[in-house]
Amino acid sequence: MSAKDLANYLESRVAMLGMSKSETARRADISRQTWYRFLSGDVNDAKLSTMIRLADALETTPMQLLRLYFEGTASPDTVIDLGHLQAGNEHYASKFLARTVGAKPNRVSST
Fold first, then answer.
1. H-type alpha helices, 2-107
2. Per-residue pLDDT tens digits for 9-23
3. Judgement on whether residues 42 and 17 belong to the same structural domain of the protein
């Protein structure tokens, strides 16, 4: 897990968008205390719902934040490439995100 890489990305993204830290917390509907824990890299148990709200406030994708949180390093303008998923995993990822955000999962053929 790389909470520090996530913190660096969040700082960069806030600066890139020209938002204040308080505005970001307000847009993400999270407490300033939670926001500053993210910014300091002091996050050991981030809620997925918080990550989704942060992604929305920072105009990025939840997958981008999750990848940083679990794998580390990326620049603020990195685009997530989901092409590395093996056949069969696409549907699982789609169902997982659908449950999380309440959308209908995409049907992906493994052939």
1. 3-17, 21-28, 32-40, 48-57, 62-71, 89-101
2. 999 999 999 999 999
3. yes
